[in-house]
């Protein structure tokens, strides 16, 4: 084989090697998009499409609501993550995530607007809210929803230091306040009580236990683990409750 032919063969071999490597890369990317983690990693490098925050989440009394973020995918679809954030105690309580077409996202946002007042927000603020709530909850050994680590890559290159405002978590005094949701099991509620008692300490947390509407007494207040129903002087007809000297109106009164 001549020297010229040897060089030609080397060039062909190098070209084939590059083509094989490219096909493998495409196959790996395609396979990774079959998982939620892979989809979020791919989305993390895309342009932010929409970023919204629930007005209730910024309410100092509620601090409970959704954070919505979507990013564009290379194939024209969008990756969506909706975080249900409890800034008073639990951090990220629930997560919904999917990859869909822009028209589907429009429908999702319309449905959300029927239950929550959503406002445009900077991606830096959204990330700061979510991660700040998680860090607050971690003080009491309360972990974010199990799917959080799977969707976390959607933040990608969003720099939360660009958001310079101060965010506060917990109640007005910085204490955790757990308000149970309608789908919180008895076991889950007990676990949260125990964690707050262990890691916050007596008198350093509040619990609001919501009961079903069929109950004669719609909710009970607990301070530092002490159930008010144990107080013989409690008037069962009271329509307002006091937590640390502050009146909280009964929403069902």
Q: Which SSEs are present, and which pair or pack?
A:
Layout: H1 3-32, H2 36-43, E1 48-54, E2 64-72, E3 78-86, E4 91-100, H3 102-113, E5 118-120, H4 123-138, H5 148-151, E6 177-179, H6 186-199, E7 206-210, E8 219-223, E9 226-227, E10 240-243, E11 246-249
Parallel strand pairs: 6-7
Antiparallel strand pairs: 1-2, 1-5, 2-3, 3-4, 7-8, 8-9, 10-11
What does this structure look like?
By secondary structure, the protein is α+β, with helices and mostly antiparallel strands. It has three domains: 30 residues; 121 residues, no CATH class; 73 residues, no CATH class. It has six helices and eleven strands. The strands form three sheets. A five-stranded antiparallel beta sheet has the order 4-3-2-1-5. It has a four-stranded mixed beta sheet with strand order 6-7-8-9, with no helix packed on it. The relative contact order is 0.10.
Please report which band the strand proportion falls in: under 5%, 5-15%, 15-25%, 25-35%, 35-45% or over 45%.
15-25%
By secondary-structure content and strand pairing, the structural class works out as alpha+beta
Q: How many domains is the backbone divided into?
A: 3
Q: Total helix count?
A: 6
Weakly predicted, low-confidence segments: 213-253
> Mind summarizing the main beta sheet?
5 strands, antiparallel
**What gap, in angstroms, lies between the N and C termini?**
96 Å
What is the mean pLDDT?
81
Q: Output the radius of gyration.
A: 25 Å
Q: What general outline do the C-alpha atoms trace?
A: elongated
Provide the spatial order of strands within the biggest beta sheet.
4-3-2-1-5
Number of strands: 11
Biased composition (Basic residues): 7-17
Region (Disordered): 1-24
